[in-house]
What does this fold into?
Amino acid sequence: MNNSNKARKITLKRGKDASLRRFHPWIFSGAIQSYDKDIVDGDVVRVFSSDGEYLATGHYQRGSIAVRILSFDDEEIDKEFWKRRIAIASELRHTIFYNATKETNMYRLVHGEGDNLSGLIVDVYGETAVMQAHSTGIHRSRHDIAEAIVDVMQEKITSVYYKSATTLPYAEESEERDGFLIGKTQENVAIENGLKFAIDWEKGQKTGFFVDQRGNRNLAYQYAKGRKVLNMFCYTGGFSVYALSGGAELVHSVDSSAKAIDITRQNIDLNFPDITVHEAYAEDAFKFLQRMEPEFYDMIILDPPAFAKHLNAVKSALRGYTRLNAQAIAKIAHGGILFTFSCSQAVNKEQFRLAVFTAAAEAKRKVRILHQLHQAPDHPINIYHPEGEYLKGLVLYVE
Ligand code: SAH
It folds into this structure.
């Protein structure tokens, strides 16, 4: 009990401590009996059962998720805490990449609840760490966290860019949401499995790149040889670069954002300056699928944005996944390979599979599942927080 002077106190209602005792990292506002009256967003809070037993320490925030737990030990949340936790996260990445045969210097260093650091995301691109806060508590600690990253990673990380304008709750109330906290790297080309990607952490989506698809892109590389590949929702063209590297006969990339198409072209040029078999289209995916010639492509990747951002949007999201997949399954060439994904946290594996099953039945094709995919291991799932399993994918063989 070493931080009792600074931390605020929260007491839970009787019987509302069960999920915390199973190490779930969130406390919903309905579970709370009493707060210290001067509590404000981002305060460190110590949480007690109705009997006065210490349970956990976390960050308080107005709203449905009232506390995001950082520790089940009664420890102080200071710079040393961040250093200890980032060292543990770094050690795990060391384990994951220990046997890698191809160079990769971009990866997720901290994955929120998956690294027992609810509210914090850190992606590494070469010597730059891009840090994202999803809670006011993380925002208030941003300088300590940035220093902890550089201390732990030593010379491997020289700059920390903070990118939280779109992720912070009540963002309008906070100052300084985007910009370098430490250093100012110029170099923005990072390497994944030996392939080069230009990362725009300032203006790009999320932290600039979807590192969670690394392993799945590598699988696409293995299937691409001699195939005509359509990469739908291509964003930075990750799957396209891998497919070309794997010997695809041609690759077409589609994204509704003109900016994404520019980045895709740039990444193709970085890796294959003389290639003539790649085309990129700034177009709506559903329209493209409608107008495309049947049986032209024998490999299609569907990696749409999250169709369901909330639980109450699940039904319409599932209809969207079915509609999208039905078109692709109907039109893919015989013997075609379809990579299909959902990154909606609110849609679970079974629901997504049912949506794709419905699509296959509508298209009246013979479909078999070759692989069941998920996020890369540097996006670990805390076993006590199953909500963290957000990326789901299937690789289908369509006869
Ligand atoms: N596959 C990518 C990530 C996809 S993110 C990767 O590996 O990095 C989703 C992308 O879908 C975004 O780039 C967004 O611009 C695009 N998008 C959203 N709605 C779309 C639509 N209706 N048609 C085509 N692209 C769309």
Q: What stands out?
A: The longest helix spans residues 79-97. Residues 210, 213, 233-236, 238-239, 254-257, 260, 284-285, 303-305 surround S-adenosyl-L-homocysteine (CB under 6 Å). The chain has a mean pLDDT of 94.
